[in-house]
Input
Amino acid sequence: MLDLIEPALFAVLTIAIVAAGAGVVLANRITTSALLMAFTFLNIAGMFVLLGAETVAMFQVLIYVGAITVLILYGVMFTPQSPRPYGLFFQTQKYWAALLVVPIAIIVALIAFSFRDSATVGAKGGDLLPLATSVFRDFAFPFEVASVLLLAAMVGAIVLVKRDED
Amino acid sequence: MAVPLGAFIAVSAVLFFIGTAGVLVRRNAVVILMSVELMLNATNLALVAFSRRYSSIDERGSVFVVFIFVVAAAEVAVGLAIVLSAYRNKPTVDVDEIRQLKG
Amino acid sequence: MIQNVWLIPAFPLAAFLIDGLFGRRWLHKWTGVIASAAVGLSALIAIGVFLEVLGGQTRTTVTLYEWIGVGDFHINVAALVDPLSSVMLLVVTVVSFLIFVYSNGYMEHDHGFHRFFTWLSLFVFAMLILVMADNYLLMFVGWEGVGLCSYLLIGFWFERPEPYVAAKKAFVMNRIGDWGYTIGMITTFLVFGSVQFTDVFEHVGIATQANLTLICIAFFFGATGKSAQLPLYSWLPDAMEGPTPVSALIHAATMVTAGVYLVARSMPLFAAAGPSLAVVGVVGAVTAIFAATIALVQFDIKRVMAYSTVSQLGYMFLALGVGAPVAAIFHLATHAFFKALLFLGSGSVIHGLGGEQDMRKMGGLRRKLPVTYWTMLLAGGALAALPPLAGFWSKDEIVAAAFLGGYPVLWAVAILTAVLTAFYVTRAMWLTFHGEPRDHHLYEHAHESPAVMTLPLVALAAGTVVLGIAIGFPPETGFIHRFLGPVAQVEGIAEHAPEAATILVLAAISVAAGVLGILAGLSMYVRHRPDPAAVSRAAGPFYRLLVNKYFVDELYDRRIVDALHAAFGAMWAFDVHVIDGLANRLGWLAAAGGSSLRRAQTGIVGNYALTIVAGLLLVLVVYGGYAAGFFTR
Amino acid sequence: MPLGPFGIDPVIWAPLRLVIAVLLVVGLVFNGALAQIYLERKIQAIIQDRLGPLHTGPWGLLQTFADAIKLLGKEDIRARLTDKWFFLAAPSIVFSPMLASYVVIPFAPGIVGADLNVGLLYMTTLGSMTVLGIVIAGWASNNKYSLIGGLRSAGQLISYEVPQILSLVTVVLVVGTLSMVGIAESQPGWQLNVLVLPLAFVTYFIAGLAETNRAPFDLPEAESELVAGFLTEYSGMRWAIFFLAEYGEVTVVSSIVTTLWFGAWHGPFVEVFPLIGVLWFTLKTYLFVLVFMWIRATLPRLRIDQLMSLCWKVLIPLTLTNLVITATLLLVFPSTVVPVAIANWLLLAAFVVLLPYVQRRRLVALRERLRTAA
Output
């Protein structure tokens, strides 16, 4: 019975992710979209835990839920819009989009099942040490470059939003 | 009984294309940003799954997740800044109406 | 000490950076102090280096780092420290230091004070690089650097039109000369595969006579540009529009001697290429007498000095040409002192008169400016080659070398020039300091300069008095000869072994020439017999020719500049119609293509994203096709 | 079939254990909050030379119970223009992360919900989730004071997370583990981390004050300017949940301080009776809760710009410097923490001595600028 806990959790998380993700796209209120997005992020963090990557899961929550969602909520609150008829809700190209995206999604999802777990990977330990080793030893330079990217993005965002005369 | 790797990848693929669909069909620029975040998250999921289950050598896949965090944060900051400054010029976040740059 | 030779240019560079970055906002008057102190430190180190070279370190190469390394071609940023460069380092730093100190007083009330010292420091840095370089390319860096600083400093008072026109002229003429230098350097590289002095000089033998001559003539052409020789001399008199310390430092003591230094440095090349030395000597002699005649009739005190400088530089080239590089460098050193002194003295007079430069408005100033008068009198004596002042020893060696080397014509020209030199010096001194004041208003307000200006004058005067006898006695075998021996010991140049009697006779003749010139000047200006005005009337057309400087500037304008204008017009037409036309057609093609593709750009972001997804679908289909084997059969 | 503790089947034990733990923690938080409210009122009263709650029960002990019953009994009011689901969800979003953080707190040897190897990171993560609830509460209230309060709070929390995490990282660098139990075990006896990293402790404590919206950083609920911030529209039990969350957060921050810097459960007799660790832990934690109250009663509230400049111009540079110095010293002297301790004490001294001086200089400059502008 304990063996079923993991698939059961996986099923719950999958349903939550797909439903909430679809909700983000379909919800007619933007705040709902934002909250559902945060919910999707949380569930993905759950997936990470299921995969045994709890450090990444923590960072996922810290960054996506704690920072990015709040940032997007800020964006939502600073750009209020009057309600609009549902006909104007989607872009005019929605049928084309559906026609293209659905087959691709099906193809890719089917291809995805062709990946098999590697035989040698047994029960790995936590991912804290491997992650730290990779980031600070093997990928130290790209990591620094990424931090410069972040700094540049921050400066760029400030410059873009700053009003001219104050 | 462990969940097979393919299942994780499939979930990731489905979420990715949900995000794609969001980018393609929604008019609201903020929602488009959210959809992009969904796509990035789907990528994260695939990367972590591969890194934990597929590679028999090490777990470097997770490092790319860290880089995607960085990129996502940068993307959302700059994206929102652009949306905000566009909103200041013309009070709309509808991407169909922001088309002054057309050729 | 020699290993730290890089400190010598480092100090002026640091001063340049400090003054340039912080001078305008924070340092103000301190810029002068900083720059002077930096150059003073350089001078101290230069003395140390000189003493070490004296102690036997006759040839050291100090490499700082590799600058260019491409295949077999290696150029280092390296200093070559030998007697020649150590003497030059000493002269440059010491004279610079004195002039820097002087400038603190002279430029005191100028609003560009910090700018002045910034450029001046940069100049000293570039000059030191030029002198220290161990290869032609690094030397060229300094060469161009001093040219740039000369341009900046001549045009220092750019608010007025004359200075910047003069600056432009100087720059363009230097560029023409640099063209020669560049050709020389490239040819050197092609012939020898290296531009390093030691490499080149050791392998002189591998080059053909024609190649060597080409290299030497090209380098000498470069030298004429920098050292204001015929035909590229006419920028130097115009350069007097710059501040007087600049004239003293750049256009008398240091930069203009770069050409002399270049030829002296390249002596092994010149010696191996026989005809080119003759060219150097003839050009030098012609320039000497040519400039001296113009100096006879100028009324601007600084222009007299400028033409005098051209003339004296001609002497140096004459010396090089007759195979006496030691005499040339000796004269370079003494000239640096007494001509800097003359310029600074003129500056002191100009300063005392509130900016007046016309000698016709001066007169009788010896009572008002005693220090300036006495120091300038010494310098004038040195210029007129009166014993025992410095100019006598060095100039006498040149004249003697010309005679002993078997060039009697050049010797005669040199003697004649000496007479003219003595005459115009006497004239300038008399008009400025003696006689009755001709402009009483100016005279009333004239005043002696402050100590910060007069002390350098005194120091330079001391140098003028003792330098010649200290290192030039006894003639032909003095200290300078022993020290600079390695420079002179070049194949093809025979060290003369003159007899004492010959030397005495030659010296007597040149002293007599000087005295003759002085007496002629005195009789004309003190006793008015013959009256100068009458002489100028009698000379008529010749006098006009001199006053108008042989119409050289007009000749250049009419012949060369106009011809260039015509050629450029033709090129411009070609550019507009053919090249631009081609580019425009291509641009039109791209524009037409672009505007036809423009319709695809709807401006709706979603559409673009959709095309990306369509592309993804295409990739997947193709990939699937390959996987299924549709395309492989 | 393996047997779990107490002879119970592990399949049943796992959820049972969860239920027990949740019940325990909820009880802990509720009772802790009641006790803290009583303490707060009494201490404020003592500092302000008053008597405080007096009449209900002996020494007014039952006053908070009465208040709690009153709040529970109140009508659940929701204004019509509020955003229904968000309005209802916001208190839970604030409350549940706080509750979840108790999982990793090491009360005593062996008494811990789960010894995660990323425990500290887990706590930080949960702390950052609170922001979401506050922003949503502000937005859902459809009230400008609420909205501004919520956004201010979000800005404050996100800003102060940076020095907070940087302070924690210095400790992690010294200790070498993220596990709360591991950190607790690393400081037996008198080898408290506070002796090594006093500056990190001070900066963390300041940032913790801001993270819990406590005075002098209680901007989001600044009554004088924003009515009650994001709480304006809330009343009754939902309001109470926000307050429970706040007191819970205070306890969590105090627990982190206790664990990271003051040796967690370590104290006399712990080796003999492990359970006595709970007592030591609680005593230490409540000591810091008292400090929180003391500060609230003493210091005036900061202005929003002062708050932000304190964070970005003082705390973040300070913690960054501290982090870099600590990391460097640990690399240079891998076997001893004495240099780190010396550097940290020196930095702390410099901070304490120089801060008033720098502030005065800035004030003078500001006045000068205002005068010239006027």
Summary: The two ends of chain D are 84 Å apart (CA to CA). Chain D touches chain A at residues 10-11, 83, 86, 116-118, 121-122, 124-126, 128-129, 131-132, 135-136, 139, 147, 151, 154, 158, 161, 178 (CB under 8 Å).
